[in-house]
Design a protein that fits this description.
Two copies of one chain form a homodimer. Chain A is of the alpha/beta class. Chain A contains eleven helices and 13 strands. The longest helix of chain A has 18 residues.
């Protein structure tokens, strides 16, 4: 089944200890849509300016991404610039220019409104709600968020939580949102705020999936070298939702979600191994399946031999 | 098969945000021996003063631990005192009094020298080597260590590494010992220093097991409340080695070590749930097997239903 992805579409300027680049395709929806497109047809909702390079449009098209919901308006595309510290665990945001994004009012094409799976990638909760308002009873809605919205738009975020099936956020955000230091308590607390399922991402330590009756602890795929963490969380969310939409026929089960979390981790692990979207662009389904198999073997408690 | 455990035997004074106690049974060998005793006969090598409470001797005896290698000498038992911060992730050592431990020269009873499995729990590497020198070709030797020895006795530690089958250490120690920020690189680098196998413990995030051809990523058992982290690493090492000695007939395989790491994690997870050794003392094999089963279920990528 197809998925709708909304979020930011940006031109990023990124500097890591080993590489740098200007006006690179970025934004939560770009990474998420590209990751999801390996598994299922994607419909993109977002906004860019008339400076948005045609090469990026071509890239989306080459992945079969439906762009009817992409608004191209006069003005400049949203721009973000950041620099990573030597260990790649922390970064400084150098500048954020909302540009055309400042007046974004998502308007869904009619062909989008009955999309069964929805990924509200990281943008302001009010925009995520605005998209959701236009949907006709989606089967499964996943939202991603970030610390900025916990600090500046908590009321809208809490409202959003009552309307989604799953929230994805990282460990420090889960602690901030709930005031709990234990991630186990934090995950369960967030479930009581609305979403049936919660994923807490722990960066290099993997992720935790919380559900009504089950819990899943997923280690991280072991990487020797990380080159650029930009978009890792968005790629995880896109891979997770895309795999789910492609493989779930009836109701979404916890068993489905376990595998979806692992596929999200696999996509994210590839993404951070190269600068910008380089690796995602030349990824194949064979690469994805090979790493899934290896990852599973590395995490099994009991094996033969 | 039986295991020999050496390390420190101490009287601890511990203060956590919720509890405190004086002259509690502690030390790396005490926790490790108790944990191992759930699986297999244990022979203890260590030293205490004549102030060592008889109740502690009785506790060891009640777990079937062989005390022929325990020296009881005139003077005071090794004492350690520490206080945990509010989040239990950091602690201050308030005092260390070596007392009788200062002149400890481990002397193995003849009945100990052919013990097939050896756990050199955390003490000075020179003492670990001294014990190893008295052993007749043990089948599998595991050493635990800590940052103190990396800083003050690195030469001896490096010498020890060439003589053990497995080293256990935590993430920051692995980084300090190798200068690598990536734990994957650090684990592999330590293997090149001698041990065939390395376990890197990541606290609440689980552990990583490195071998010649395989890698195992073990998440942590999800705990809502941690009461006292004292002895967690020693309990992990003891549970791991004890399970291995009890269940391995021929050569130790990577499949054996995976399960041993999980059993070590299970023992450690119980230990930190209560103050001091309270939980370890009233633990049963049924408790251990129940948590192993649950832990496995929580970590599986693919399940039915």
């Amino acid at each position: 089944m197809s998925i709708l992805v909304t979020g930011s579409i940006a031109l990023d300027s990124v500097k890591t200890p080993l590489a740098s680049g200007e006006d690179l395709l970025g934004g939560s929806a770009s990474y998420a849509a590209l990751a999801a497109s390996f598994f299922t047809p994607v419909k993109l909702v977002g906004i860019v300016g008339d400076d948005f390079p045609k090469a990026n449009i071509d890239l989306f098209r080459s992945r079969g991404i439906d762009l009817e919901g992409l608004q191209i308006v006069p003005g400049k595309t949203f721009r973000w610039s950041g620099e990573y510290h030597w260990d790649l665990n922390t970064r400084d945001t150098l500048s954020v220019d909302l540009n055309v994004f400042a007046d974004f009012q998502p308007k869904l094409p009619l062909s989008y409104t009955d999309t069964p799976f929805v990924l509200l990638a990281n943008i302001a909760p009010s925009l995520q709600i605005h998209v959701l308002d236009q949907m006709e009873r989606p089967r499964f809605v996943i939202a991603d968020t970030m610390d900025l919205w916990i600090h500046t738009a908590k009321a809208e975020l809490l409202q959003l939580l009552t309307r989604v099936d799953m929230l994805i956020l990282n460990d420090s955000e889960a602690r901030e949102l709930t005031g709990e230091t234990s991630l186990i308590k934090a995950g369960n607390r967030i479930r009581s705020m609305g979403p049936q399922y919660v994923v807490v991402k722990k960066g290099e330590h993997g992720s935790l999936l919380f559900g009504p009756h089950h819990f899943f602890s997923c280690g991280a795929y072991p990487l020797e070298d990380i080159h650029d963490p930009t978009g890792a969380g968005d790629t995880f969310a896109g891979g997770l939702t895309g795999w789910l939409a492609a493989h779930v026929g009836g109701d979404v089960t916890f068993a489905d979600l376990r595998k979806a979390v692992v596929y999200g981790s696999v996509l994210a692990s590839y993404n951070v191994e190269s600068f910008s979207m380089d690796r995602l662009q030349r990824l194949s389904m064979e690469d994805i399946e090979a790493r899934y198999t290896l990852f599973k073997a590395m995490s099994e408690f009991e094996v033969l031999g």
